[in-house]
Amino acid sequence: MSRTTGATLLVQSLVRQGATTIFGVPGESYLAVLDALCDAPELRFVNARQEGGASMMADAHAKLTGEVGLCMVTRGPGATNASSGVHVAFQDSTPMILFIGQVARDQIEREAFQEIDYRRMFGQMAKWVAKIDDATRVPEFIARAYHTALSGRPGPVVLALPEDMLRDEVTTPVKLPAKAMPADSAPSPQALKEIKERLSHAERPFMIIGGGGWSETARNAVVSFAEANALPVGVSFRCQDYFPNHHPNYAGHVGLGINPALAEKIRQSDLLLVLGARLGDCTTSSYTLIDCPVPAQPLIHIHADPEELGRVYDPALAIAARHETAALALASLGKVRDESTAGWVEGLHQAFQAFFAIPERKSPGDVQLAEVMKHIEANTPDDVIYTNGAGNYAIWAHRFLTYGSWRTQLAPTSGSMGYGLPAAVAASIARPERTVICFAGDGCFQMTCQEFATAAQEGAPIRVIVVNNGCYGTIRMHQERTYPARISGTSLVNPDFAAMARAMGGHAETVRKTEEFADAFARMMAHNGPALIEIITDENAVTPVKTVEDLRSGG
After folding, report:
1. CA–CA separation, 92 and 432 (whole Å)
2. What pLDDT digit, counting tens, does each position of 247-283 carry?
3. Are 62 and 86 in contact (CB under 8 A)?
4. Which pTM was predicted?
5. In Å, how far are 23, 201, 368 from 410, measured between CA atoms?
6. Which stretches of 161-259 are DSSP H helices?
7. How many CA atoms lie within 13 A of 452 on its CB side?
């Protein structure tokens, strides 16, 4: 009979919590866990190429599935590499657990090989950081980690696992706690009464939704609530799949590069109802879209974490409630205002449609990215999953693609470069029946490009679009705006990305003209495995409507 150890209890506890996938890079500090996984075929270990990619995969898996994302790395360098994904999970409010193999207990505080105090290292970017010293308490720590990651404002937990603890034999029976569920909280009857009262008297109300801890149930409830009350809905930064974009109540993306017409309408609104969004700088245009700290219009702010309420903006009504529960409560109100202001909603959706159209002014160069995006959307299923990291290339994806189905956008609100590729790998593994397309800039792609090999090993047929303009586009944009024509540190001399992808086992092509893209895309979609298209673009095409020359002239 096999022995029960700290490692086997860890694996058993994860299975009990419903875990299906662990993303990681192996290390000698947790070999006992890898061994225990041999006896748990229901728990898949995805061997990433770098710990930062593994932690971003865990974040994307959690966003897509609603499960807690799991990442496992070794001590020291492994943990520092993985911190990039922990930061994404923290700012994006994603439930995740990072397991770190730690030095043996008798070596603690001696600065042993690769030893770090993880409480000090991760204290500011995790909801809870702990070290498990007693193997018998492993199930207790795992249950608490799940509850902490899921409840309130979701976020990451970090658990350090001393390697000798993982090998310790447990001779007394240990009960495994039941699967953790997020602690619930709901709007009070008085709060719902006040929402009803304020909404019934508003002439130009506007709703913003976003943040973590959402579900398709919450999304559908918000759609029902908006339809019943002629309420326009905008989505916070990179939460564009929270509301069906073709719905007549959809007003657009309240994020970076906001439609100027939408921004003006929000300023003109006489009631703001915000559900789930923190109202950070990306959603509020650096705190200028909404007057700070006292908004010009009454603000009803609903958030799962009471510490977020009143943190920046002074709300007329603050409600601490889990987002799904709050959405269902709002939908239960039914119709509370008439349709006399339906024109307000129609005008906002028409403004979105106009902004969504391809601009008349062409971008510099032989490739028109707006046309590329329209072709992609016209030739992919409605439930396609789009992923991206950070960079100006993402502006085209955010502006010219629509997100109709739930969980069709996986992108970091933290603005982390390199996120798109590992997110695509995780999405393809979790939802193999769905098409997954990653967008990356040349700088963004090179942050995690090695994870293309992970896709090949795992049989994940991801599609990658690399937009190569030979520079760090976002930084160049700000550089040209602040220090015109003084280029320093932002140019890139790139490898042949198509050749790189082929060397890793994928199909790849290079596109230099708009008219070449359609056939290349068809071949990429027909390929049974990971594939990549490198698009060579002009570095002067900074945004869909701005060029380097515009920035230098103050435009």
Report:
1. 24
2. 999 999 999 889 999 999 999 999 999 999 999 999 9
3. no
4. 0.96
5. 17, 37, 24
6. 163-167, 189-201, 216-228
7. 30
